[in-house]
Structures are given as C-alpha cells and as structure tokens.
Amino acid sequence: MPEPLLFSIVESPGHPNLSALYRRLGIREERFAAQRKAMQALKRIKPDFVVAEFFYGFGNNYAGANLSNLDTFLASLQRYAPQARVIVLVDKAQRPYVDRLAGRFPLHGVLVQPVGPADLEPLLGA
Q: Which of 41, 49, 69, 103 is the Cys-Cys partner for 6 at CB 3.0 to 4.6 Å?
C-alpha cells in the first residue's frame, strides 16, 4: 500500500510546521506556499489529505462568488481528488465563517489555532 499523500498549504507564518508528525505517521507531505501552486499539482498528483488555513474574505471579491481563500482550491479538489480529506486551520475570531464553507464543500475537520500534533493526529489516523 503506498504511503498517504498530504498537501500542506502554508500561506502565513501562523501555519504550524507539522512535518515531523506527518513523517512519524508515514504520510508524505507536499508543501505549497500558495494555493495556485497546489492547484497546479492537483493535475499531476492526488492527495489523501489537505491541511490549509482558512481566511475569510472581508469586503473583497470573497464576499461575492467566494467566501474565503479556500473556495477556488476546494472546487478544484472536488474535480481532481474528491476523496481527499480537508482539514482547515482557523483563527478563533474567524471560526464562525468556516461553517458557511462547510456548507459548500466537505471538510474532514476544523481546528482552531494554535494547532499542535496532538490536535491533528486523530484526524489523520481516521
């Protein structure tokens, strides 16, 4: 059985470095500094998990068609890797907005920052 693949989309300094956890669990990590790069990779490789931060779009384009920074990526994920389990990391103040995102896209888990290995491990083992 091939090792699971996880896309780690790191868009801010607040994203925890959980690479040691992934290695310990036998999960191969692909790190991306931008959603755009992760979407390009989706055309070549299919992740089993995605760990990404949620940022609500206050007063910009997100208020129209998109709710957050994740909408476009999650739409692509539905097309290329619908089996992937999405784990969203969110600031406590923005937590209420994630429920709207979950109404549009399936989310495997939502974790409020700060997030450590003990918080994430149960979601990766499920």
A: 49
